[in-house]
Amino acid sequence: MSLNRIGPIVSHRVLVSLMGGHHNVRGTPTDFKNWSQSVRLYIGDRDAQLVIDRLKERSESLPDFYYEFVVEKGQLRSIFWADEISKINYEVFGDVLAFDATYHTNKYNMIFVPFTGVDNHKQCVTFGAGLLFNETTESYKWLLESFLKAHKKQPKLVLTDQDPSMKAAISEVFTDSRHRLCMWHIMKKLPTKIAGDLLQNSELRALMHRLVWSIHMKPSTFVTRWQLLMEEYGLQDHDWLKDMYSIRDQWVPAYFRDIPMCCLMKTTSRCESSNSSFKVNSSSANTLVQFMLCYETRIDNQRYRQRVAEFKTSSSVFMDSTDLAIEKHAFELYTHAISTEVRKEIYKGKLFCYIVNTEDCDEGCVYYVNQLDKRNNATNTFTVILELSNQSVSCSCNNFIRIGYLCRHFFCVYRVNNIERIPAQYVVKRWSRDVLPKSLFSIESRYGVDTRPQAAARSQILEIVTECVDALRSDVGGLSSFAEQIKELKCKLLNGGPVDDEANNDNYAAVEELLGVSLDGDVTLDNPDGIRNKGRGKRRRLSRAPQDGTSNSAVKPPKTPRLCRTCMKYVTGHDSRNCKKKKNKNKNKSGNEDEDEDSSSASQEST
Predict the structure, then answer these.
(1) Residue ranges under compositional bias (Basic residues) (predicted)?
(2) Dihedral angle at the C-alpha atoms of 503, 45, 447, 291, nearest 10 degrees?
(3) What is the structure's pLDDT at 554?
């Protein structure tokens, strides 16, 4: 349970509850604590050597497992690894890639860098990962080169934050890729960069966000509106805004509208979410071997969710929301998550879009489609060009290029022309059903399954016994009979020959089996040492004050008033514990007590 950051005491309590009492659990809470200590003693100073041995064992037992590492002056410096499933996922879903550095995942402060994408269920998928000694351009360059050796092709779009080392490494290694900066990291700095009264201007912030986040705007329109906005609020000479404007082609959506799948990820939020999930299992006290076990546990959880999504896709039943045949065709083509999105577009294309005008042109027929909001007010007019001979279409909203499936404006035009199936050229492979081979979901391909003979036999026995107990759950006689048969088998086994109790009680053998590596062989690698990265500590780093000396407190939203139970008023400055009314009451009370004591002492003296 330590792979899920559950401590020894809690682990013991959980097992006691699951097993039906303390008498069914082998070991005391102290034994559970000692087990954790045994694992660390087993690893000792051989951590770097053991983690490389484990990767080597993986490459021998798993097909097409790739790993690479760097050693300097006898110390382990960097590692990269990716298994067969990661490679297959990248082959299909590797058009857009995001990666970010994560800290506090191991005791040596090595920087953890997972590579994240989006699969055909719109879920995060990991393409590989690395551990780095530092965050220099050379380190990231080596990491990306190792990634390229494993996956053989470059992504179309790479998403990161504004780290200069990442940017330099990407420009050198991913020469055919377009680098995009995370919009969220840029826009979250806006309140600290704009000072004075402008900081409190909610209209300015709303206009700025509406401008930069627009996905339908063309670059020329963005330039014009940006300049007008700067002139309106007198921000033409603002240094930070000028810097962000000079690199607008690296983060503003208007400059990515013609890149396929550009709206799949506009921020590194998926990357942050994936990194956070890895830290759920791992901790800053883990050795590299323990971290690798935690990583494999998290990857196995990720792939379990992928298998669940695959099952949901294959077992879901079609229920139409329109009477259009094209809706059922979309259900048959796409995964459950994507077919839901496409069917929403079909539904909205029928109810919230209508054609206002048509024209003939050389390419075919031009349709002008009005889009309505929920109040049936026209919001925008989009231009759709349809060539009936091959059913090819293009729309001014650019949705198919941006996200990979047809928009509501297409379906509005298709409905008018009685087109009942989505043309094959508009079915993107990455969103399709069965795009991944079935072997990808087999037992043998899973990280969490131990394929060694003794481990496989134990798992099979446990599965058989559990299945029998579940089948006889409500049959008291059947359970009693099954228990007797198990007892007979146990007696026959224990009385049939000597049992090696020493081997069963050997902690080293158990730890070796858990970690999957043995202590045999020479130690040629030293553990990493002296790593100082730029990752922030917890609650130690103060946020930067806004320019022109404006306090950060002005940025914070006002506190919600709370009821003080002493003065019975809704206030923000105090509560019932430190209310002035309570203090005055206590003061008066103490004063009265002093007077009573004085009067009593005076009466005693008089007597």
Answers:
(1) 533-543, 579-588
(2) 130
(3) 45
